[in-house]
Specification:
The protein is an all-alpha fold. It has one domain (about 1-145). Helix content is about 80%, strand content about 0%. The longest helix has about 70 residues, at about 1-70. It is rod-shaped. The relative contact order is 0.08.
């Protein structure tokens, strides 16, 4: 009879544990689902940010190439004049769309100390350049909000 009592006790324990096991299983399933959905969301954010990062990489690469060309050519050479013209386009326009604050600061330093050393005021905005720079910065802010969730 002792074994019948033990069997009955074990059956009662098993029945008492079942609801907790069910609740634990539901919680584990919900947690797994939430983690999976979060990972999908993060993957989608990375996917949506790719065009922005690709444009940033392309412009950073071009800017490096232009600065290198300025450093390796002499004033008066056609390649130097072309590189200088493109530098100003990048400085006041294209690069402002994607540059980070450290890159912005470096570009200003390069402008003042190397590109426009004789006339550093060119590195600061006149009305048209300021408008172009402000427009590009506003575009960068909007693109960052849409493409790059920080």
């Amino acid at each position: 009879m002792q074994w019948q009592r033990t069997a009955t006790d074990l059956k009662l324990v098993g029945e008492a544990i079942q609801p907790f096991a069910l609740i634990f299983s539901v919680i584990a399933a919900v947690f797994t689902f939430a983690v999976s959905e979060r990972d999908k969301y993060l993957d989608r954010q990375v996917e949506l940010s790719q065009p922005f990062y690709q444009k940033q990489l392309d412009l950073y690469t071009e800017t490096s190439r232009v600065i290198a060309r300025l450093a390796t050519t002499q004033e008066g050479e056609p390649a130097h004049a072309a590189a200088l013209a493109r530098f100003w386009e990048l400085y006041w326009g294209d690069l402002s769309l994607v540059e980070s604050p450290p890159v912005d600061s470096l570009m200003a330093d390069i402008c003042k100390n190397y590109v426009s050393k004789k006339d550093p005021s060119r590195c600061f905005a006149n009305d048209v350049a300021a408008a172009a720079h402000d427009f590009a910065n506003e575009n960068e802010r909007e693109l960052s909000e849409r493409w790059v969730r920080r």
